[in-house]
Amino acid sequence: xxxxxxxxxxSRGHRHRGEMEAEHTRAVRARLREQGLLAEEITSRDTPxxxxxxxxxxxxxxxxxxxxxxxxxxxxxxxxxxxALAALMExxxxxxxxxxxxxxxxxxxAGHGLGxxxxxxxxxxxxxxxxxxxxxEEAGALPQVMARLAHYLERGQILRQKVGMAMIYPLVVMVxxxxxxxxxxxxxxxxxxxxxxxxxxTLPWLxxxxxxxxxxARQTWWAALILALGSGxxxxxxxxxxxxxLRWHRFLLRLPVLGSLRSGLASARFANTLSVLVGSGVPIxxxxxxxxxxxxxEIFRAATVQAAARVSEGQSIGRALKQTGVFxxxxxxxxxxxxxxxxxxxxxxxxxxxxxxxxxxxxxxLTALLEPLLILVMGGVVLVIVLAxxxxxxxxxRLVR
Length: 401
What we know:
single chain, mainly alpha, Receptor-associated Protein, 15 helices, 74% helix
């Protein structure tokens, strides 16, 4: 009997860690399923824990995509895994990646499999990444699987860049508008209004309101800054609590435009990941588990865990995903079609492209709506300030006449 460490998730998406003695990992998975748990990671107790291995955070997505493409190119050129890793260690790149590659290279030279080694470095590499590579090793098609994995990561990076670029312009307009209004309220308005106050005339209500806002901004700007920073740190801490994060993600999915955008992004990533996992030969239950772990949205992650549990009980993939009530209808129809035709991997890739196209369309509509709306809001605020400043001048001219 061997002692195994395990990390498993329940139907609510909560993680459970522990140890269990069994002859092999399949027995551990079977016992966990009897307890209503789905195994995410199983390692021998004699294997050093993840925390004892290379420290640090996750390798950046762009660096991981570039590494995967270079690694697949070297393997397709006929280099062994050891020589390919040694060549990549000499390339310029993030220090974090080179540090991890050095540790991986040492483990591979010691006789460990590449997929098994990457699973031990789960802080640096996503769980589904190691699962795909291990499946490619077991099937004897690691170069082809690495090429497919590199393509998948590059597509994900392109989608993230499109989302980021679509949000840059609205953010820039908001920052510039806030700076302009701040300068007007704290510097320009007090100097202009001081002239009217010396005239001892009764100021219009709009001007008096602007003076009150200006005084409040000048006296409490430091408190507002501290409150904003404190709120940010508090929100970040609260979102580390699983229950609060789950409710927050559920709230975001219910928003009119942002909800459909988040749903499309999560569905595209799920379909992409599952397509690569299934195409690489990973068993469907494990593939669903790894695809769910790759998602950032807790609602979709919990739904994937529930679907994996139903599939392990003999239910079809399409029906199991449909019963979660989370995934888009188009994705469910394509999954059912691919499952019936035996071409699930290819159909999932088509579903991912369809979801990505839907996300891009929603992004275009959102930016097209936000750009004029932000300009109108900024123009309206500046117009109010100008009117509040000009109205006393107009009244003074009337009195002089």
